[in-house]
Amino acid sequence: MKQKTDVLQGTLALMVLKTLDVLGPLHGYGIARRIEQISGDLLAVNQGTLYPVLLKLEQEGAIASEWGASENNRRARFYRLTRQGRKQLRTETQDWEQTAAIIGRFFDAKAEDLS
Q1: Which entry of 17, 30, 39, 61 is 20 to 30 Å from 46 by CA?
Q2: What is the 3-state secondary structure (H, E, C) of the chain?
Q3: How far is CA 15 from CA 18, 21, 45, 108, 113, in A?
Q4: CATH number where 76 lies
Q5: Buried-exposed string 48-65: b where 16+ CB fall within 10 A, e elsewhere
Q6: For 37-86, what is each residue's pLDDT tens digit?
Q7: Is 17 exposed, middle or buried (0-12, 13-18, 19+ CB in 10 A)?
Q8: CA distances from 89 to 18, 34, 48, 76, 108 (A)
Q9: Could you tell me if 100 and 72 are in contact, meaning their C-beta atoms sit under 8 angstroms apart?
Q10: Domain count within the chain
């Protein structure tokens, strides 16, 4: 059985934006399950962490929501990416790629390279 890790601070919003970009509108529970699924079930998304992030993203205009019926015919709030959210996703993706490249340099560094 795999040990699930909590999502790193500051990464959940990016994962939400990317999930909505790839899969389209989803309700909160669906977003959480998809993030866990995409991670290969290595991440655990806490509902108490997810909903404040969804609220913040909505207040910032990155996502919009509307009420609808879930797969089991329950009333649920569905979230979708906005134009502003797509722009934010592009910017944050570039920032993370740059950060990952910088960190990668440290893992690849050897003493002789730094002389």
Answers
A1: 61
A2: CCCCEECCCCCHHHHHHHHHHHHCCEEHHHHHHHHHHHCCCCEECCHHHHHHHHHHHHHHCCEEEEEEECCCCCEEEEEEECHHHHHHHHHHHHHHHHHHHHHHHHHHCCHHHHC
A3: 5, 10, 11, 27, 35
A4: 1.10.10.10
A5: eebeebbeebbeeebbeb
A6: 999 999 989 888 999 999 999 999 999 999 999 888 999 999 999 999 99
A7: buried
A8: 7, 17, 23, 24, 28
A9: no
A10: 1
Provide the token pair at 8: 């790193």
Residue 39 in any domain: the answer is yes
State the pTM of this model. Answer: 0.86
Q: At what angle do helices 12-23 and 28-38 cross, to 10 degrees?
A: 100
Phi/psi-derived region of residue 73, left when phi > 0, alpha when psi is between -120 and 50, beta in every other case: left
What's the rounded Cα separation, in Å, for the pair 75 and 64? 17
